[in-house]
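User: I'm curious what two different proteins look like when written out as structure tokens. Can you demonstrate?

Assistant: Sure. I'll show them one after the other, since each token string lines up with its own sequence. Here's the first protein:
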Amino acid sequence: MSPLVSIIMGSTSDLPVMEKAAQLLNELHVPFEMNALSAHRTPEAVEDFAKKAGTRGIKVIIAAAGMAAALPGVIAANTTLPVIGVPVKGAVLDGMDALYSIIQMPPGIPVATVAINGAMNAAILAVQILALSNEDLAERFAAYKEGLKKKVVKANEELKEVKYQFKTN
């Protein structure tokens, strides 16, 4: 089974954020891989990865990075595959530096960008892209979305049982 999605992070310190993407892909039975590559520390490896990803069967790349956050853009510059960037919250600017670095791509080199630490939404976007040409995955994703709806309905019912002196519903 070859991976369809590649999760790339600038450092293994990003793993606690990116686990949410891995968990969702796993839940929906989407084959994926995970690697740590640095745009600044291993630039040749990043370029080689990006140029060869499509030939290995990868269809979507999720790239996470913090601080200067060059990784998603460098990957996008070296592939025709869709790249979804996940800005990772840092200690100094709370991830705003990474967010701005990822969303401010020049024309012709887009990186779809999710919220700071938004790895789950990155995985959802990857699944939506893949589901366009995979009916089984589309059905699993539709069931996942229905499950989200049911969780909210259940939570709302449970709130009815919470009592306060001045609560009227």
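Here's a second, unrelated protein for contrast:
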Amino acid sequence: MIVASKDRIPKTPIENKRVLCEAYDYPSKVSFSRGMRVDLDNCSMLFISGTASVDERGESIHQGDLKGQTLRALDNIAALLESEGADWHDIVRTTCYLADFRHYDEFNDARNAFFETKNLNPLPASTCIEARICRPELLIEIEAIAVIRRGR
């Protein structure tokens, strides 16, 4: 049975091509959106896909520099949020993937410093997992969920 579109929750892709190209624009197409906005009755939820240290051309940057990669991933997420009228204060959850958990302290120091510059209180719920990242030169990938008032 196919459900009519009027019976589905509205959703739209999130993008900010000034900072990040779309994955389907890569030379080898990758089938995912940078994020998805889901509109509910009085709020919208923003689901940001795993975001790494890539530039507007989709190229990996800050190779070998965990702090640089962490800050670029966090800034990329900030740019995606900005395109929806949101910011880090709207984030309710992050999931962080580290290629090597031995670097957790360095990652955590960079994340803490970033969050301090944003004056986040409370901090988002978070999980950190060691995992193989999609490119061998990438050391960190972060996904996020934000909730904002509908119409913002």
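A detail about the second structure: The mean pLDDT is 88.
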